[in-house]
């Protein structure tokens, strides 16, 4: 699991992700872009709903509880940095 890029990097046992979030999408999905991961969520960017949905989506994708997904930077921005504590699964988009 020695993968390093500007979108995904390991910090000890944790994974740090750079995301570009698009709220209010027609479906929830995570895709790989060049220098970030693109996360589309159906939730609107109101009252933290999109951030909560992103955290839930990432928790499921990486096989961790949502408490193991931490928003490090970008609470109200489209560009976010997230830490996944000890991911149990490494999805294809993260390889």
CATH architecture: 2-Layer Sandwich
- SS content category: alpha+beta
Largest sheet: 6 strands, mixed
Helix content: 10-25%
> Could you give me the name of the CATH homologous superfamily?
YggU-like
What is the number of independent domains? Answer: 1
Beta content: 25-35%
Number of E-type strands: 6
Q: Secondary-structure element order, as H and E?
A: EEEEHEE
- Determine the CATH topology: Conserved Hypothetical Protein Mth637, Chain: A
Q: Please state the CA-atom Rg, rounded to the nearest Å.
A: 12 Å
Shape: globular
CATH class: Alpha Beta
Unreliable residue stretches: none
**Terminal Cα span:** 8 Å
* Average pLDDT score: 93
Count of individual helical segments: 1
Can you walk through the features of this model?
The chain is globular and about 35 Å long. The mean pLDDT is 93. The protein is 15% helix and 34% strand. The protein has a single domain (8-87), classed as Conserved Hypothetical Protein Mth637, Chain: A, CATH 3.30.1200. Strand 1 (8-11) and strand 2 form a beta hairpin. It has one helix and six strands. Strands 1, 2, 3, 4, 5 and 6 form a six-stranded mixed beta sheet that branches. With 95 residues, it is α+β, with helices and mostly antiparallel strands.
């Amino acid at each position: 699991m020695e993968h390093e890029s500007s979108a995904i990097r390991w910090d000890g046992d944790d994974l740090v992700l750079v995301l570009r979030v698009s709220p209010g999408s027609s479906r929830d999905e995570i895709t790989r872009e060049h220098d970030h991961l693109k996360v589309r969520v159906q939730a609107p960017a109101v009252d933290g709903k999109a951030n909560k949905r992103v955290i839930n989506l990432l928790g499921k994708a990486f096989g961790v509880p949502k408490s193991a997904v931490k928003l490090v930077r970008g609470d109200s921005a489209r560009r976010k940095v997230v830490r996944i504590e000890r991911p149990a699964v490494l999805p294809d988009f993260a390889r």
